[in-house]
Design a protein that fits this description.
This protein has 515 residues and is of the alpha/beta class. It has a domain of 252 residues: Glycosidases (TIM Barrel, Alpha-Beta Barrel). It has 13 helices and 24 strands. The strands form 5 sheets. It has a 9-stranded mixed beta sheet with strand order 22-21-24-19-18-17-1-20-23. Strands 2-3-6-10-11-12-15-16 form an 8-stranded parallel beta barrel, surrounded by 5 helices. A hairpin with a 2-residue loop joins β13 and β14.
Length: 515
């Protein structure tokens, strides 16, 4: 290995000794060992207002409980359990589809892909009265809702009939496809939102739990209708809310001990065998960790060190088979979660070729450095393990969460970004510091490395880059508790044995090496 030392001073401002004897942790990035492509679509948001222009994000997902009963013809929707099961006009728009078309156009203007929710629950709101629980109205399904059907079986119109009591979702897809034109970033479609919770979140429509058989049939009907209109799109499903949904569709009456995701995948595999066409492209899940610390779930707020530490470690449940978080999930399965390898094994077994996506995820602490560090580790893990799509679900303050995004998408304030090819890495203290490495096919000679200290204490580490290489410059950017944005720091010298890094606790450092 030939490394050209870069004549820059090591100075991270912590007053730590530069002696290698202080080093407790060793990290390695193998420059000549690519392990897979990093999907550009993991840097997404579900935020109500598209802010990708400033955040340099790559995908917008329109979804959530509000979209289940969204009527594209009038823009009416129902709040479900979020707000008194009320029909209203929260989605602004007078023209058909206006409420969905505008955010799509905003995302496309920022060169970002879109995942759009298609309602599949069978009914959509017929009015915007805003008068509270629709179930107070006699015969509310027939008087306050319109039938929502997958397929029109008649010519489409961009000005649909508002008085026929029916809304056609393939016509909705046709409206969007026709309105955005031919040349634009990808427009994909998700099959509703968290159907495993319909009997709780939308019991104005679903009075009883949906079954495996019901939702499989619904999914296939809508997926086929969508692809008849947009054959080159990708279909996302089942948009499951979490672990209970993954396992048994939140206690579906026909579960009979079968894993729901395995069943769902295998049903679409059978459909492809029957039709010769794929109608499920992305297995779509939501992930809000159940990990706890200091008596709280990590998605809750608080300053207890046990809570903060649990949040910092929770990303390990995405992949680490040796890590067991404190949660009811681990208590019930008596083993580690290791979610990504677990789900990918299901896909390979039941419907190979299906991608994995997370149209919602959040690890809490959005306004705290621990939230920024958690998001940096989550994004690094998604890239390393080949997740196809991911979009963060926003809360009232996600300044640090998106600062974690910036360490991959805009660390220098000029669009500096992580690469599109993941490199093999090793670390000898996964409970303390993680490392993610990348090369970029669009920037020859650039290697970008992200180092994350997911502890509450400062850490001293040595980073080595293995493989034949030389660098003419290195730049360094840091995220810490001083401000929710990356800031440049004096870059370390790279010697033949590697470079020494002093990491505040908790913190993220992004290094850009240029040959």
């Amino acid at each position: 290995m030939r490394i050209v030392a870069i004549p820059l001073v090591l100075a991270f401002g912590l007053g730590c000794s530069n002696s290698p004897a202080d080093i407790k942790i060793n990290l390695t990035v193998d420059l000549q060992k690519p392990i897979g492509k990093i999907s550009p679509y993991i840097y997404g948001t579900c935020g109500p207002d598209w802010q990708g222009r400033t955040k340099n994000l790559t995908l917008f997902r329109m979804g959530g409980n509000r979209t289940t009963a969204y009527n594209w013809e009038t823009n009416a929707s129902n709040a479900g359990s979020d707000w008194h099961f009320q029909n209203d006009g929260m989605f602004k728009g007078k023209a058909p589809g206006e409420a969905m078309l505008h955010p799509i156009q905003d995302a496309f203007a920022a060169n970002a892909a879109v995942v759009m929710t298609v309602p599949c629950a069978g009914y959509v709101s017929a009015d915007e009265k805003g008068d509270g629980d629709v179930r107070k109205t006699p015969n509310w399904l027939s008087t306050r809702f319109n039938l929502s059907l997958p397929k029109k079986n008649a010519p489409f119109s961009l000005q649909p009939d508002l008085n026929d009591g029916k809304v056609y979702e393939d016509e909705f897809v046709n409206f969007l496809e026709s309105s955005v034109g031919k040349s634009h970033p990808p427009l994909w479609f998700a099959l509703d939102n968290e159907p495993d919770l319909w009997s709780e979140t939308h019991k104005e429509i679903w009075l009883q739990k949906p079954t495996y058989a019901q939702f499989s049939r619904i999914s296939q009907d809508y997926a086929q209708a969508i692809k008849a209109v947009a054959p080159d799109t990708k279909i996302f499903g089942p948009v499951s809310y979490g672990w209970g949904g993954f396992q048994n569709f939140q206690g579906a009456p026909d579960a009979n001990g079968r894993n729901f995701l395995e069943f769902y995948l295998s049903e679409f595999a059978k459909l492809q065998e029957k039709t010769g066409k794929r109608f499920l492209d992305v297995l779509d899940l939501h992930w809000y960790p159940e990990a706890r610390g200091g008596g709280k779930r990590i998605t809750e707020s608080g300053t207890d060190p046990a809570l903060l530490n649990a949040r910092l470690q929770a990303f390990r449940s995405l992949f680490d088979k040796s890590y067991k978080e404190q949660s009811w999930i681990v208590d019930s399965i008596h083993e580690s979660i290791a979610l990504l390898p677990r789900i990918k094994e299901m896909i390979q077994k039941n419907y190979p070729g299906t991608e994995l996506g997370f149209t919602e995820w959040d690890f809490g602490g959005g306004g705290d450095i621990t939230g920024g560090v958690a998001s940096a580790d989550v994004l690094g893990t998604f890239g390393k393990y080949g997740v196809f799509q991911a979009s963060h679900w926003d809360s009232s303050n996600d300044s640090y969460t998106y600062a974690g995004f910036a360490m991959y998408r805009n660390f220098d304030g000029q669009g500096g970004h992580f690469g599109d090819t993941a490199l093999a890495t090793t670390d000898d203290a996964p409970d303390t510091v993680s490392v993610y490495g990348s090369n970029d096919s669009t920037q020859k000679g650039v290697t970008t490395v992200v180092v994350v200290n997911h502890t509450l204490s400062p850490q001293r580490v040595k980073l080595a880059l293995s493989g034949e290489s030389s660098f003419r410059s290195v730049e360094a950017f840091q995220l810490d508790n001083t401000a929710p944005k990356p800031h440049p720091i004096t870059a370390p010298v790279y010697h033949e044995s590697g470079m020494l890094l002093s990491l505040p606790g908790p913190s993220v450092i992004t290094l850009r090496f240029t040959r």
